[in-house]
Amino acid sequence: MVKVSVMGSTGVIGKNVTFKLARADTVSEVVLFSRPESIDKAKGQSYDMYDALAAEDIDCLLTPSCDYEDLADSQIVLISAGAPRQEGMSRRDLAFVNGKIVSNYARQVAKYAPDAIIVVATNPVDVMTTIALDASGFDRDKVIGVGNHLDSLRLKTYFARRLNINSSEIHTRVIGEHGENMVPLLSSTTIGGIPLKYFIREVELDIREIIQTLRNAGNTIISKKGATEYGPAYAISNLIITLITNSHKILTVSLYLEGEIAGVKGVSLGVPSVLSKKGNAMIVPIHMNEYETNKFQSAAEQIGKLTEEVRKSLKEDK
């Protein structure tokens, strides 16, 4: 049984992750961390959640707090705090505002929960993963961004729905930036064990349309309901529970690279990772065709530039 802290617990994503974790068999306490001006909202959410948990006979301690000392002994700290993305905004538009928030929170985690794993969900998540790594001073295996985990789930679902095939038969992955420069690994996608390139000879499938739908998924949801909610929250919860249970599943998360994939160094991007209770246990080597390799390296270049701009901005603000 572990303690998890959610920084940004009153936000749309944070509150959903909190409730999902509270219902998990492996979590004994969730700290609903918020700013002082939002503490009443965090308390209200905890009361509401307790009522729901009672209906399922679940005993999980919910601790609303704006005191950093309450982060102590957390095995996982989720940083989901930050300005939300509005319709028409790119994740990059948020980089400079959210960089300050993530940097401050990561420093506090390092001070009060030095043994924790930091999971970063704040957008743009690849940039924020590096900012959290810088500010915390943690080993890179203990700072993990949500990365392309949700993108990979979305692609899997799209193929399943289009082909009317159970999603368990779809094995696919998206890497690179969680954003415009995401890289679907179509060259290694299989359906029922059959490589996609052979499968689509027998089935009418518009790959370009699927990829465009994938890239626009977040904006499509935001335009219709105002925010993405269940998908990100459940993907994040799935990632955290994978870490807690030491299951060694392979998820596509954002990690700081030192040349493991396509020679990319000095930037955080979504890559396949074996996750354990210690964080990233191993970055999984992958084969890419020339097009995918070029797109991945291009994503690295662009995210690297934005990361350096945010780093410079943070230094100037000190």
Automatic annotation (TrEMBL):
UniProt keyword annotations, A-Z: NAD, NADP, Oxidoreductase, Tricarboxylic acid cycle
Positions annotated to bind substrate: R85, R91, N123, R154
Position of the signal peptide: none
Pfam family, one: Ldh_1_N
A biological-process GO annotation: tricarboxylic acid cycle
InterPro entries xrefs: L-lactate/malate_DH, Lactate/malate_DH_C, Lactate/malate_DH_N, Lactate_DH/Glyco_Ohase_4_C, NAD(P)-bd_dom_sf
E.C. number: 1.1.1.37
EC primary class: oxidoreductase
Entry binding sites for NAD(+): G8, S9, T10, G11, V12, I13, G14, N98
Domain Lactate/malate dehydrogenase C-terminal as annotated: residue spans: 149-310
Lactate/malate dehydrogenase N-terminal domain boundaries: 2-145
Entry annotation: catalytic residues: H178
GO MF term set: L-lactate dehydrogenase (NAD+) activity; L-malate dehydrogenase (NAD+) activity
PANTHER family cross-referenced by the UniProt entry: L-2-HYDROXYCARBOXYLATE DEHYDROGENASE (NAD(P)(+)), L-LACTATE DEHYDROGENASE
Similarity comment: family membership: Belongs to the LDH/MDH superfamily.
Official protein name in the record: Malate dehydrogenase
Organism, scientific name: Methanobrevibacter olleyae
